From TrEMBL:
Belongs to the ROK (NagC/XylR) family. This is ROK family protein.
Length: 308
């Protein structure tokens, strides 16, 4: 069975794994993501490759932030890694790593993992939202990942909210309201606590301990999230929405979100022709981007075989 080197580039860490064509992992690890330069980033990838070269990987498959042309590996933007802006990564790596290389946006990679072996398996139309420092996302249409004309479909973080008609602009984005950090920051402000000392797990533990302020914040968070999802549903009319990110591991989040959506759809049933989608947590968590990057390569290879 063939091996593949999958790499998931994050803002703070680069995770990697050697896996077979069924996405079974035999080796895994991680290293710090360079913040300095493209050269340092390339050296980090070279070190990863050299550490697993003995496994004879057939290809290097990469998941990364940014708006990426998945057919060429060109970064229109590199997200938090500015040195990737306007870089064709496979070309930059060509003289350093002697493997076929393909690259896909991280949220879209997570969607391919869910579509292949997860919550979106056998789903014809769906949305995936990953809640974290922003709102990553992906759109599935006709059972396939839809990337958009310019590979920007699913960039939900930037959806404008709080329109200001006096200036003709907007004063916030969806990510400002429904990223995990914003939820924690609002709760800590209400409690007069330092938000740097709290994470998502501690927030949900406060709810389980009976903290009413924390529960109020979660309910408001789910109200606004459900409102955004209603807008997307009116546009796309999907059958399922899957929620990812660290806090999606908390059953209370999905439970509360579904309760809020039930109420919203009941209230709007007579005036808004929206069908209530299924909402559940993504099946994969930490390995989703690695699995999706592999799936992207395998699909590209199938397409190349058919076209030839």
């Amino acid at each position: 069975m063939k091996n593949y080197l999958a790499v998931d580039v994050g803002g703070t860490a680069i995770k990697y794994a050697v896996m077979d064509e069924n996405a079974d992992i035999s080796i895994s690890g991680e290293t710090v993501t360079p913040t300095t330069s493209l050269g340092d980033f390339i050296r980090a990838l070279m070190q990863i490759y050299e550490s697993v070269e003995y496994t004879n990987p057939e290809a290097l498959v990469i998941s990364a932030p940014g708006r990426i042309d998945s057919s060429t590996g060109y970064f229109h933007t590199g997200g938090a890694l500015g040195y990737l802006n306007c870089v064709n990564l496979p070309e930059a790596l060509r003289n350093h790593i002697p493997l076929p290389i393909c690259v896909l946006n991280d949220a879209k990679a997570a969607a391919l993992a869910e579509l292949w072996k997860g919550s979106m398996e056998d789903v014809n139309s769906g949305l995936i939202l990953t809640l974290g420092t922003g709102i990553g996302g992906a759109v599935i249409i006709d059972g396939k990942l839809w990337q958009g004309h310019n590979f920007a479909a699913g960039e939900f973080s930037g959806i404008p909210v709080h329109w200001d008609t006096r200036t003709g602009g907007y004063t916030g984005t969806w990510a400002n309201i429904n990223c995990t950090r914003s939820m924690i920051d609002r709760y800590c402000a209400a409690k007069n606590q330092n938000p740097d000392n709290m994470n998502g797990k501690q927030f949900f533990q406060a709810i389980h301990d009976g903290d009413r302020l924390a529960m109020n914040e979660l309910e408001w968070f789910c109200e606004t999230l459900a409102t955004g999802l209603l807008g997307l549903q009116l546009i796309l009319d999907v059958e399922k929405i899957a929620i990812g990110g660290g806090i999606s591991r908390q059953p209370l989040l999905i439970e509360t979100l579904n309760e809020v959506m039930d109420r919203q759809y009941e209230r709007k049933a007579s005036c808004i022709p929206a069908t209530r989608p299924i909402v559940e947590a993504c099946r994969f968590s930490s390995d989703a981007n690695l699995i999706g990057a592999l799936r992207h390569y395998l699909l590209q290879k199938e397409e190349d075989t058919v076209s030839s």
